[in-house]
Amino acid sequence: MTITETVEEGMFQTENPINELNRMLVRYDLTPNQAKVYLFLSKIGIKTASEIAKALKLPRTETYHLLSTLQQKGIIFSVFGKPTKFNAVGIEESLEILINNEKNRISELESGKEAITRLWNVIPKYSESNSDDQENKFQSLQGRNSILVKLEQMVKESKENILVLGTELDFKRFYYTEFTDLLNKTKSDLKILTDLSPEESHVFEDIPVKKIKKIEDKNREDFCFIIKDNSEVIFFISNKEVKDMLAVWTDSKAFVTTLRSLFSLMWKKSHHIDETDAESILGSEITYEHRLREIEQEKMILNYLQENFQLLENNGGIRK
Questions:
Q1: Beta strand 189-194 with 161-165: parallel, antiparallel or unpaired?
Q2: 22 Cβ partners below 8 Å, 6+ apart?
Q3: Exposed, middle or buried, 244 (CB in 10 Å: 0-12/13-18/19+)?
Q4: Which residues pair with 239 in a beta bridge?
Q5: Burial class (CB in 10 A: 0-12, 13-18, 19+), 208
Q6: Burial of 33 by CB count in 10 Å (0-12 exposed, 13-18 middle, 19+ buried)?
């Protein structure tokens, strides 16, 4: 086996940092296999389509399609000859090209917005029924981008408060996004319940510590949600069979009220991350009977949520 073949063999092994690069490039409108082909050519150099397909264990027909798409995007080029060979544009130039492509696409979408709205308004309404407006709505959100779009809308429209509950592991999925910037800029009352440690760097490190309290009960790790005012909630769903992030948005009064009750109970008994346990205990006077009532109330809330979201997930009861 040659040195090149050895490098090719180990490029995309799990422990290789190039896998992290592959995941990051997906954010630049590349599919995982497109990113893989680009990175392969960037590190290995000029190769034929058949050599690329063999090294990356991809079907040859798919490889030709991937190479054609990457050429259209402008980040790889062909070297004429028999057979045709391919090489990659440098990483900095490629990122600039991909960013400009996305800017141009957004500019085109924005320019078409007015025309679409104008045409829409010309079309007459065929039903005056408002019955659908009165129903509770549930929307399935799959993938980080679709979730972020909804979160941005919720945070910007919020007028009262934003309540966030989840573990550090839950929110690590929002690294390299504007998620925390959105929260930091909100004029609403922001409260965050999470399990982070003040000694370590974390997702919410730019947010004032007075807005953050620490989850003490590890049994709450299964729940992750974000509430806007008393009107909307995004509830994250754990599903090992789905690779993308999965969440449910709803304006159901029952769900929002139930989750707000759970958040309020946990917020009252939690303490800020810059407080010691002793300071937290001194600052509260909770009787044994009161704590029992809280536990019983929490149990009822959690059972309600588990039963209803399990039904939605299993029976396909989420309406898009």
A1: parallel
A2: 12, 32, 35, 36, 39
A3: middle
A4: none
A5: exposed
A6: middle
CB distance 95 to 101 below 8 Å: no
- CA 139/CA 234 separation, integer angstroms: 9
**Mean pLDDT of the chain, nearest integer:** 79
How far is the C-alpha of 186 from the C-alpha of 277, rounded, in Å? 29
% of residues, the chain, pLDDT over 70: 71
CA–CA distance, 245 with 44 (Å, rounded to integer)? 33
Note every long-range contact of 181-185, with CB atoms under 8 Å and residues 24 or more positions apart, other chains counting: 181/206, 182/151, 182/152, 182/155, 182/156, 183/155, 183/207, 185/155
- pLDDT value at residue 179: 83
3-state DSSP helix/strand/coil % of the chain, to nearest 5: 55, 15, 30
Say whether pLDDT at 269 is over 50. Answer: yes
The single residue listed with the structure tokens 């690590």 is 172
Q: Which two tokens stand for residue 7?
A: 């490098």
SS (H, E, C) 210-252: HHEEECCCHHHHHCCEEEECCCEEEEECCCCCCCCCEEEEECC
- Does the pLDDT of residue 226 top 90, yes or no? yes
Using a 10 angstrom Cβ sphere, with 0-12 exposed, 13-18 middle and 19 or more buried, the burial of residue 49 is buried
115, amino acid identity: A
pLDDT digits (tens, 9 = 90+) for 157-214: 999 999 999 888 888 877 777 888 889 889 999 999 988 765 566 778 888 889 999 8
Among 63-67, 79-83, 107-111, 181-185, top mean pLDDT goes to: 63-67
